Fold this sequence. Notes:
The chain is built from 15 helices and no strands. The model has no long low-confidence stretch (mean pLDDT 94). By secondary structure, it is an all-alpha fold. The protein is globular.
Amino acid sequence: MLFNSYIFILFFLPLCVAMYFFLYHLRMGKAARLWLLGMSLWFYGYFNPSYVLIICGSIAVNFIISQFLLRQRRLGRRRTAAAGMAAGVCLNIALLFYFKYFDFFLENINAVFHTDFALRNIVLPLGISFFTFQQISYVVDSYRGETAGYSLLDYAVFVSFFPQLVAGPIVLHDELIPQLREEERHRPDAEYLARGLYLFAAGLFKKVIVADTLGNLVALGFGGLEILTTIDVLLVIFAFALQLYFDFSGYSDMAVGIASMFHIALPMNFNSPYKARSILEFWDRWHMTLTRFLRRYIYFPLGGSRKGRLRTYGNILIVFLVSGFWHGANWTFVVWGALHGAALCVHKMFVRTDRKGSAARNILYAAATDIFVCLCWIFFRAD
Length: 383
């Protein structure tokens, strides 16, 4: 189901919000959360009911793993817990690999070794990249002992909460589950409702009016490269940079707005990224919840910047290669991630981030950053 569809705006969303608060009004808190879970699963499986089996199975397995990790921690079995955490993370990665990358892997095997393995043409479940990362964060935090006291229903609602299920933001358990339990959030709030309606309307405008219109131009440009002039190419590159921003930030705004209607605050995902004056600042402003996940669950466990410069640069490159591959099963995404990783390494080597520049210098830095980002978007969009 799409946020900009009539059935969602005129039927699904008002029904879901109204019944959710009505059940809480009747002091039926568990029924309200079950209602939210059921509606989220309906939203997810609207186009393909088989998706529901996948996400429900994933939720059940990850919750069992998290309970196992908490128990091993209570018993002081740190090595068993560490092995269980590693197994849980690998299991999630394996699920993502099968659905998103298995055919890509076979294609490359066939190309390199001249084999003829048949592709499976696996249908990619919606949002699997997002809820897989979300569940990996939960498994790791369970190993750290940070998820004690959560029920299966709490966890299921956390993973399947429909505003952020398909395209983020990537929410952590301590951001959502405690809000579901707060008594004052079980009543509708006029301020949250107004904020939610505003953000949803703004995001809808970004997505439908701006991004989709620019998308038509971008599709024409990439579909007819042989007839484009240099100016045409530059316009198409610039148009795609804007399309991607307005599409993704618009969806994120709608997600945050919908959650606000439930009296729930989700983290914002974008903060004017094209105003960034460096590639480091760009990633502090663009898809901020993904940046946070990569930093907290990959960069820091690898050692971050604590083990010397060379190790730091290697960790940065690993993180951005993972980011690139996470975005799509194509070598173009790997190249895109490698370019950003290399740029961030160069920034770490030569640029002082604590120095305040003049207005002219800041404009120059912002322009240089945007040019680099826009050129990298070519790899992101190209076939």
